[in-house]
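Dear colleague,

As promised, here are the two records you asked about, laid out in our usual form so they can be pasted straight into your sheet.

NAME FIELD: protein one
SEQUENCE, THEN STRUCTURE:
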Amino acid sequence: MSVATLAVRTLRSARYSPMSLMLLGVLALSGCSMVPEYRQPELPVAAQWDGTPDSQSAPGGQWWREFHSTELDSLITRGLASNYTLKAAVSRIDEARASAQVVGAGQYPALNLGGNFQRQNNYGTTAKRSVFAEATYEVDFWGKQRAAADSADALANASVFDAHTLRMTLGASIADSYFQVLSLEERLRLAQSIADDARQVLDLVEVQASQGAVSNLEVAQQRNAMQTFEAAMPGLRQQRDLALYQLAVLVGAPPQGFHLQGNGLDTLQVPQPSTGLPIGLLRQRPDIQAAEARLTSANFDVGVARAAFLPNLSLDLLGGIDTIAGGQIWSAIGTLSQPLFAGGQLKGQLHFDEAHVQELTANYRESIIEALQDVQTQVSAARELDKSYALNQSAVDSAREAARLAQVRYRLGSTDFQTLLIVERTQYQAEDTLLQVRLQHLQAAVGLFRALGGDFSAATIASNSPSQVAHP
C-alpha cells in the first residue's frame, strides 16, 4: 500500500483536529523526484597490468609491516594517531556531516511551542492567556529537499574519502622520510669511512715523500681526495637533518630532540606487493571514491535545480488553547507559489549544475586513468630498481676488490699512485650509488602500496566513521 493511499484512508476513517488532518494530507502530496538517474561513467580498464602476471587480489591492510621494522611500525602508528593535518581532515568530516544535517532538516516540519499573555484595560481589566504549537512545513512534492539532503550526504562521504586519501599519503610519506633518513645516515658513515681510509693512505704517501720515493704532487693529490670525501659530509648532514625534521612533523612531534634508532637499510626487507587487478582500484583508491561521491552530489543538485521551476507549497499550522476561556485556537495557512520570471536565474542554475556534472564526470574518469598510470609507473619502478640494485651490488663488490688490490700493490711498489687514486674514488662513487639505489628500491615499494590504495580494506573504505580514519 502506497503512502498516499494510506493517508487518504486514514483521513476518511478517523476524526482529527484540522491541524492533524492537514499534516496527514501532506503525506499524499510528497514522493516525486526530479533527480536524473545516476549512471557510473564507463571507462575501459585493461584486464591486467603490463609486465606482471599477478591476478591475485591486493590484500590491503597494514602494508608497512611488510618491511619488518618495528621502528617504522611505531612511527606510522604514531603519525596516524597524532598528525595534525589528518586531525584537521577528520574534523572536516564532522563539519560536512553537520552541514548535511542542516540541509536535511528542510525535509521535516519546523515545530515551535509558544505562549501568549495579554492584559488590557478597556473599561475594565481583561487578561488573556494562550498556549499553542506551531508547525511550518514546505511540502517536498518534487523531491527538492530530499535531493538537497542527498547531495549534502554525498559531499560528507567525499570528505571521508578525502581523509582516507590523506591517510594513505601520510603513511607513505612517513615511510619515505624514514628510509631517507636511514639512507643519509649510511651515506654519512660511508663518506667518513672512505675519508678515514684516504687519511691512512695520505699518511703513507707523506712518509714516502719524506724519503724521496714520491713527489709532493702525489701528497697534494691524496690530500685533495681526502678533503673531497670530507667535504661531502656537511651537505649530507644537512639533508639528513631536513628529512629528520620533516619526519618529526609527519608523526606530530616537535623537531627538537627527535631522533631515530634505525640500524640501517640492510636490516629492512623489500616486499613484493601484490597488485591485484586494475578494476580493483575502483574499490580501493579513496581518491577515486571521493571523485565519484562528488559526482553523485552534483547529480542530486540537478534534481534540486529542476524542482525549482515547479510550484512550491508551504504550510503554516497553529493549534492551541485559551487557558482562560478554555476554547481551542487554530489556524492553517497554505501558500502556493509558482515561479514565473526570475531573470534567467533558475535556468542559469540548472545549466550550471548540468555543466558541473559533466566537469566532475571528466574529473572522475581522469582520476581513474591517473590511478592506473600511478600503479603502472610504480610496478615498472619496482621491477627495474630491483635489477638496478643487483647490478650496482656487483659493481660495489668489484670496486671494493679493486681498491684492496690497488692498496696492496701500491704498498709493494708494483702500481702507480694515479691508479690508487682512481680506485679510491671509484669505490666511493659505487658504494654511494648503491645506497641511493637501495633507497629508491624501498621507496618504489612504498609507492606501489600507496598507488594500490594504502591500508585499504573493505571495512575501512565502506565505513564513514572518523575514528577509523584517524586510527590504524
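NAME FIELD: protein two
SEQUENCE, THEN STRUCTURE:
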Amino acid sequence: MSEIRTITDRIIRQLYRDGGSTIRKEVLAGVRAGTSLTSPRARAFWPVLMENMPNKYLASTKPTFEEKAEYCAVRLYAIHQQGNDVCIYSNEKSESDTFFVALKKLRYKFIREKGKDGSKALDRRIQALLSMSNFDGISNSLVQLEKIGKANGFEKIDYSQLAQDLLNLQYSYESANGIRLKWGREYFS
C-alpha cells in the first residue's frame, strides 16, 4: 500500500475507533462543513492530520497535494459516515468498492428502478467531473456525488484508494488524464 493510502487508512480508523466521542463528532462535523483544508471549520481536523502526516508532506503556507488529497478523501468519508453506526470504510477489496465502482452500482440501480433513462442525470454529473481539471471543482463534484450515493445506499468504500487517486490527479496533466481514464473505466465499464 502506498504511503498516502496508509495515512488515510490510519486517519479514518482513528476517527472511527473513537466511537461516539464528542471529539470525533466535532472533527467529522468540521470536516463535513469545511470545503477545503484552509476553511475555518476544517481546523478541527488539523490536529488529526498533523499527527498522522509525515513532515515531508506538510507545508508552511498553502496546502500540499498530499494534504489536499487527504482532506478531500476524509471529507467524503465523513459525509458518508454521518448517521451510520457501522463503519462504512474498508480497504479490503472483498469488502469494499472504489468510489467509482460504487457509483457504477448506483447507476445500474437507477436503470433497474427507472428504466433506460434512469441513469442519465448521474451520467451527466460523471461526464462533467471527468472533464474538469481544477482540483477544487473536482472535490466539490465528488462531494455532490457522495451525497447522492449516501442517499441511495452506498456501501463500504475504499477512501484510501480515492486519496491515492486524488494525489495522482494533481501531479501532472498526464497523471490527471490517467486518473480520469481510470475513473471512467470503473464507472462506465
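A couple of things worth noting about protein two: The chain has one domain: 3-188. The radius of gyration is 16 Å.

Best,
R.
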